[in-house]
Every structure is written in C-alpha cells, then in structure tokens.
Amino acid sequence: MTTLVLLCCSISLCDSQMVKAYAQEHIYKHPWERVTSASWRKFADPENKRTWSHILQVDTLNHKLDPLSCKLYTTRALTIHAPGPWFVRKIIGQDICHCVESTVVDAQSKSMQLTTRNVSLQKFIEVEEKIRYDPHPDNPTGWTICRQETSIRIKPLSALASMAEKVEQRCAERFMQNSVKGREVMERICKYLEAESSGMAL
User: Fold this and answer.
1) What's the pTM value of the predicted model, to 2 decimals?
2) Which positions fall inside the PRELI/MSF1 domain (predicted)?
3) What is the CA radius of gyration of the chain?
4) Whether residue 5 has pLDDT greater than 80
C-alpha cells in the first residue's frame, strides 16, 4: 500500500490566475467491488462522523442507471465548512460552502469516477477534486488503484487575491490532510466489508 504525492503550481496566462494543484495515487489491497462499495458508504457510516467533521450534510440529488451503457450516474450535494484557514473564512464572511459531487460508475469496465466542485464562494475560490478507482494492473482482481487530482484557484479580483499563494498553499495542506483521513476511513470500511463477507461465507 503506497501513496505518491506530487505538488505543483502553474499560472494561467489568460487571466494571470495562480493555481495550486496536486495529484496522489494510493493502492488499496482490496478488490474494486469492495473499494467502490466503501466509497459509497464512507459518509453514511456513523463511526466516521468525527473524521468527517468538516462535512456537515450530504444529500443525494440524482441517481440514475443508463440501461444502454449500464453506467450509474449519481449527483450529491455536500455542505461543508468553508475551505482554508480561519482567516479566510473571516475575510469572505462565510463559514459554509456548498459543493456538488458527480459520480459515474461503469461496472463493465470497472471504473468509478468522482468529480467534486464548489458551487458557492466561486467569486473567491474555485476547488475541483477528481477521484478515480480502477483495478490495479498488477493485480486486477485483488487490488484497486485510486488516483486523485485536486486544483485550487483564487480569483484574481477577489478579497483573497493579495494573499492568493498563501491561501492556496494552506488550502492544499488542509485538503491533503483530509485525503489521509479519507484513505483511513476507506481502509477501515474495506476491512469491515471483508470481514462481513468472510462471515457470510462461513
């Protein structure tokens, strides 16, 4: 089980916006079906409320299975504490941020893709997180590889523009901390599902 973290910065030439972005890879030593099941359950498990203390509410907006492609499309609304350190929330005058998570599951090709974006506070900051779960090429029936990409962009004309680089760095650090917590939750649920499956088999 290994995790690769890559941090990078880039500047958009069209509007001189600074973007903080990072990518991570993590290997779950569990089959794809178990890992994706854990992903669906990670917010609903009562034991994880302390870990997900920054997530205030999760609501399913849409849940649809395409009979032709056999793909499952799900949209969820997430209400979270505004990202970044305390002084960011003080400047923007808001402690709550609303996000939308879009998920596509293709059971035939065994891929699960999640994209989460903030829909509030966009005049200050834009955050996009993409997560993909696929069978690991070295052990497709037993392991799952998770690839995560996150980008954080402060708007150039916002109240945060003068401290954009600092804010983006602090936000990136906070998101990486939450990513570690998320992997711990996923591992715990996977182990529970494995034990549950073994018990049913007996």
Assistant:
1) 0.84
2) 19-198
3) 18
4) no
